[in-house]
Amino acid sequence: MFKYGISGFESGHYMGExxxxxxxxxxxQIVERxxxxxxxCFQCGTCxxxxxxxxxxxxxxxxxxxxxxxxxxxxxxxxxxLWMCTTCYTCQERCPRGVEITDIVMTMRNxxxxxxxxxxxxxxxxxxxxxxGHLLPLKEPMMKARKSLGLDETPPTVLANKKNQELVxxxxxxxxFTDLVKKGGK
Length: 186
Ligand code: SF4
Ligand code: SF4
Prior knowledge:
Structural class: mainly alpha
CATH topology of the largest domain: Fumarate Reductase Iron-sulfur Protein, Chain B, domain 2
Bound molecules: iron/sulfur cluster
Distance between the termini: 32 Å
Number of domains: 2
Shape: elongated
CATH architecture of the largest domain: Orthogonal Bundle
CATH superfamily of the largest domain: Alpha-helical ferredoxin
CATH class of the largest domain: Mainly Alpha
Radius of gyration: 20 Å
Number of helices: 11
Number of strands: 2
């Protein structure tokens, strides 16, 4: 069977003070879930140089892509960097090799959540969604503020329509999202 790992790294590679044993199925998983351009990356750095998120944080998208190519799966999946991307697509538009970087980030996020690496904030917000069908909880001060502005206390979302709320909650449950949120992060 064709292996997507980078040749020469199958037996492990040096990371800091230890030899890391790569998971060569990891790049293959990304490719099979649509990230077929992952292996085109030749590490030019255009993505990192274009990334607005990287300007404000230590996030380096080029490094994440390299780790993915090398099968450094657990580091990618557990990495906070994976969630620093705002999905602005600037890098993807500029990549000279046509790597679908942003789409690959989202594929890796899906893999991370399936592996139980969900960020605390996402568990919290996902919990609201799974419980109410809406991302933001409706709180007393917000209801009062709406009323003082002459608006209905409840915004015209699924929160105000029980029938639609049930339908949305059903979709969320049937797609397995509720269970994922319950499983939460590691
Ligand atoms: S711009 Fe494209 S080829 Fe260059 S490092 Fe980023 S992903 Fe790789
Ligand atoms: S899509 Fe993500 S990684 Fe790419 S430039 Fe925007 S924030 Fe950076």
